[in-house]
Write a structure and sequence with these properties.
single chain, 128 residues, mainly alpha, 434 Repressor (Amino-terminal Domain), two-stranded antiparallel sheet, 2 strands, globular
């Protein structure tokens, strides 16, 4: 986005707004933050009436207030809680088992990256 500012001679010139160059932090659906895969799956589990918040909180080893923070996106879910959620969903809610397997694969990849088992490079690979 560009704004205009007056110069010393009274003419208008364009002034660059650095905030306009920021990457999108919100989804394209009305400016709301997009939930993580784990938070969306947790929301779907609670909405499906397959388990109540207390049961899910016990499975994730957290309290119910933390479950509410996860669902609202106020607090990121740790990887061990995501793995527990994936196992819970696969075991208890067959209609969401596919999403549970996706979350488990994502958690596995994130743990591999954190443990250094994923190869990362300091330079871009050269083309031949």
């Amino acid at each position: 986005m560009r704004a205009f500012a007056a110069t010393f001679d009274g003419k208008l010139r364009r002034q660059h707004d650095p905030a306009a160059d920021q990457p999108y932090r919100y989804s394209m659906t009305g400016g709301q933050k997009r939930l993580s895969r784990a938070a969306a799956l947790l929301r779907d589990v609670l909405a499906s009436q397959a388990a109540d918040a207390a049961t899910v909180a016990h499975a994730l080893a957290v309290d119910v207030a933390t479950i509410d923070a996860f669902v609202s996106g106020q607090k990121p879910m740790p990887l061990d809680a995501q793995n527990s959620l994936a196992t819970f969903v696969i075991d208890k809610t067959p209609e969401l088992a596919r999403d549970g397997h996706r979350l488990r694969a994502q958690v596995s990849a994130a743990q591999d990256y954190e443990d250094g088992r994923t190869a990362t490079h300091h330079v871009w690979p050269r083309w031949r």
